[in-house]
Design brief:
The structure holds 2 protein chains of 2 kinds.
Chain A (H helix, E strand, L loop, with lengths): L12 H14 L3 H23 L2 H17 L11 H19 L6 H8 L15 H13 L2 H13 L3 H8 L3 H20 L1
Chain B lengths: L2 H11 L4 H13 L1 H14 L15 H10 L8 E2 L4 H24 L7 H4 L3 E6 L6 E6 L5 E5 L3 E2 L4 E8 L6 E6 L4 E5 L2 H4 L7 E8 L12 E6 L1 E2 L1
Antiparallel strand pairs in B: 1-5, 2-3, 2-11, 3-4, 4-8, 6-7, 6-9, 9-10
Chain lengths: 193, 231
C-alpha cells in the first residue's frame, strides 16, 4: 500500500526547497506550485488516503488541497514549524471536512473494516530532520496511559470525533471526553517541558 | 488548561461536533490567540504523519489540478463559480425585490394575520461564504411563517447540500431546512422556531450530505454565519 518514491525523501534539502517554494507561491508564482506539489504530494496523498480510505475520494481531496493552496497561498504562516507540517495539517483538515460532509454516502462496512488498520506501527526509517520533534511527540504520547493515548492517536489518524470514538469503543461520551482532556493536558505539559 | 486552551487542542485534533465545532470555527476566524494555539498543536502533532509514509498519487492528478485552476469547475464540495458572482449580484437585487413583493402579497392575502405582527419589517441575513463567493440571502417574512432563501450562484456537486441552521445562544443548532442550489428557496419556517427568528438571531450554513445532516446537528463544515437584521 505504501509506495515509496525514490527522490523526494532525502534529508533536509527538499524541505528547505519546499519552504522557499511556499514563499514564492504566496507571490503568485505558478512554477512554485509544481515544486510544492512534487515535494509534498506523496506525503499528503498518504494522509488523505488514511482519513478517507478511498483512493478516488483521496484523489479529489488532494486536488482540492492544491487548488485551494494556489487560490489562498497567502494563508501559509511562515512562523509555523515548517511548510510540510503546515501542508500536512492542511491536507488532514480538508480530508476530514470531506469525510464529515460526505459520510452518509460512505459504506458503513468499509469504515469498520478499515478501522482494523488503526494501529499502524511507526516506520523505522523516520526522516532525520524530523527526528527531534518526532521523538518529542512520541515520548510524550508514550507517557500517557493507554486509555488516553489510544483515542488521541485514533482521532489524529482517523479523523474521529468524541462521539465516534465513544461509540466505536463502547465508552460513555462523558468518560471519553474526560479521558482525552486529561490526556491532552498531560501532553501539553510534556511537550512544553 | 483553560477551557479555551482545551478547545484549541480539541479543534486541532478534530474531536468537536455540533455547537462546539461552530464555536471553535468562530474563534478560529476571530481570535488570533486561539488560532495560534491550534497551529501550535498541529505543529506538535505533525511529526506523527511520518508514520503514514508516502503514496504516489496518479500521474494525471497534476493535470487535473492545473485544469481546475485554469478553468474553475466544480470540485466535490458544494462549489461556487466566481464568474457567477456578477449574475448573483444581479440576482440578489431581484431577490430583494421579490422579497418585498412577497411581503406585500402576504399583507393582502386573506390568510395573513392582521395585526401588529404583520406590520413589522422583514428580517434579512446575508450569509457570506468568503471572498469572491456568492452569498446566501435569507429573508424572513413578517409573519415568520415563511422565508425566502436565495442560493443563486451556488453550483451543486450532486453529493452535498447546504443546510440552514438557527444557532441559539445556548443549546444545539436547530435545522431550518436543506437548501437547493442556485434558486430562490421559498421555505416554511418550523412553527416551533418562528418566535426565535428575531432580530439578532444567529443563522449558520453547513455543508451536508444530500438530504441534510443525518444526525440532526451540523456535521459538515460551517461555511457561513450571520445575524438576522431588520431592513
Amino acid at each position: 500500500m505504501l509506495n515509496r518514491p525514490p527522490a523526494t525523501d532525502s534529508g533536509s534539502e527538499p524541505q528547505s526547497a519546499l519552504d522557499a517554494a511556499m514563499a514564492r507561491l504566496a507571490q503568485g508564482d505558478r512554477t512554485a506550485l509544481r515544486t510544492v506539489y512534487d515535494a509534498s504530494a506523496a506525503k499528503l496523498f498518504a494522509i488523505c488516503l488514511r482519513i478517507l480510505r478511498d483512493r478516488s475520494e483521496a484523489e479529489d481531496a488532494l486536488q482540492d488541497v492544491y487548488v485551494n493552496l494556489w487560490r489562498r497561498a497567502d494563508r501559509f504562516d511562515a512562523s509555523r514549524a515548517s511548510a510540510i507540517a503546515w501542508l500536512s495539517s492542511f491536507a488532514r483538515n480538508r480530508a476530514i471536512d470531506r469525510l464529515r460532509s460526505g459520510r452518509v454516502l460512505r459504506q458503513s462496512g468499509s469504515i469498520d473494516e478499515a478501522a482494523s488498520v488503526a494501529d499502524l506501527q511507526p516506520l523505522p526509517d523516520r526522516q532525520a530532520e524530523d527526528a527531534q520533534e518526532s521523538a518529542r511527540i512520541h515520548h510524550c504520547l508514550d507517557e500517557l496511559e493507554d486509555q488516553q493515548r489510544e483515542p488521541i492517536r485514533r482521532a489524529f489518524f482517523e479523523g474521529l470525533t468524541y462521539a465516534e470514538l465513544a461509540t466505536k469503543s463502547g465508552t460513555p461520551l462523558g468518560t471519553m471526553k474526560s479521558r482525552i482532556r486529561r490526556g491532552l493536558t498531560r501532553l501539553k505539559a510534556c511537550l512544553e517541558s | 488548561m483553560s477551557p479555551r486552551e482545551t478547545m484549541a487542542a480539541e479543534y486541532a485534533l478534530g474531536l468537536l461536533e455540533g455547537v462546539e465545532l461552530l464555536e471553535a470555527r468562530g474563534l478560529m476566524a476571530n481570535d488570533s490567540d486561539f488560532s495560534q494555539q491550534v497551529g501550535w498543536w498541529e505543529d506538535r502533532f505533525a511529526p506523527l504523519f511520518v508514520e503514514l509514509g508516502e503514496d504516489v498519487p496518479p500521474a494525471d492528478l497534476w493535470k487535473r489540478i492545473q485544469a481546475a485552476i485554469d478553468a474553475p469547475a466544480p470540485p466535490s464540495e458544494a462549489i461556487i463559480l466566481r464568474q457567477r458572482l456578477r449574475i448573483w449580484q444581479g440576482a440578489a437585487t431581484l431577490a430583494a425585490l421579490a422579497a418585498v413583493v412577497l411581503a406585500f402579497f402576504t399583507f393582502i392575502t386573506p390568510h395573513s394575520e392582521v395585526g401588529p405582527i404583520s406590520q413589522t419589517a422583514p428580517l434579512v441575513a446575508s450569509l457570506d461564504m468568503g471572498k469572491n463567493k456568492p452569498r446566501i440571502g435569507v429573508t424572513v417574512m413578517p409573519d415568520a411563517k415563511e422565508m425566502l432563501v436565495s442560493t443563486a450562484g451556488i453550483v451543486s456537486d450532486g453529493k452535498h447540500q447546504h443546510q440552514l441552521w438557527l444557532v441559539p445562544a445556548t443549546g444545539d443548532p436547530r435545522s431550518l431546512g436543506v437548501l437547493t442550489a442556485d434558486r430562490e428557496n421559498r421555505m416554511a419556517i418550523p412553527p416551533m422556531l418562528s418566535s426565535r427568528l428575531d432580530q439578532g438571531a444567529t443563522l449558520a450554513v453547513s455543508v451536508e450530505p444530500m438530504g441534510g445532516s443525518p444526525t440532526g446537528l451540523p456535521t459538515g463544515p460551517v461555511v457561513a454565519t450571520a445575524k438576522l437584521e431588520k431592513i
